[in-house]
């Protein structure tokens, strides 16, 4: 039996130009599908970012979000998602705001509803004593510094107050001085920034008149009640 060469099955050749040439409507449809997929992807990124911020106990940086979402999600998309959420949660009529704080982003309740929230939890706001506020201000403005340097300013033993501030996660050991005995160096923590509603230490009030006035202003802005502030002579050593 003789088989003609022309009867041999030929492999089909796919040329993408043919689809555009002979099926222009389908080409437009494919383009719309790609655009729709991109838009859905942006919405998904926004939803994931929102979920991560809601689940996080501490402020989340853009770098951390990038690490979680992976390289396939561009920094621009993460930035767009954060800006969209900021706009969505903006306004006095919203119960939650997205705020930039401590170098990251955090979902926080609207300060206007603070009284209702405190009543809901039936708990008292955190109160810091005069000695604690004094020590905290010294550390915040002069960090890093040793306990001896703090006591030189205050004029009293500060070991108990430093221990209390460390328990509150407002102050911690950030290093050691390269000197005899290698004393600990103290500095503020990210929790300190959150506590006073600051994004960075550079946002601390400028000491124009005195540390006392600056601390009073800072403390009143953070709505932490019943706090007396800086003094260098009247504080009791046992006050925490």
- Give the mean pLDDT: 76
The appropriate CATH architecture of the largest domain is Orthogonal Bundle
Q: How many DSSP-defined strands?
A: 4
Order of strands, widest sheet: 1-2
Using only C-alpha atoms, the radius of gyration works out to 30 Å
The share of residues in helices is 40-55%
Number of helices: 10
Oligomer: single chain
N-to-C SSE series? HHHHEEHHHHEEHH
> What is the strand content?
5-15%
Query: Whole-Å distance between the termini?
Result: 106 Å
The CATH superfamily name of the largest domain is: Winged helix-like DNA-binding domain superfamily/Winged helix DNA-binding domain
CATH-assigned fold name of the largest domain: Arc Repressor Mutant, subunit A
What does this 3D model show about the protein?
Helices cover 48% and strands 10% of the residues. The chain has helices at 16-22, 24-55, 62-69, 75-88, 114-121, 130-142, 147-154, 159-167, 190-195, 211-221; strands at 96-101, 104-109, 171-176, 184-188. By secondary structure, the protein is mostly helical. It has a two-stranded antiparallel sheet. A two-stranded antiparallel ribbon has the order 3-4. Helix 2 (24-55) crosses helix 4 and helix 6 packs across helix 8. A hairpin with a 7-residue loop joins strand 3 (171-176) and strand 4 (184-188).
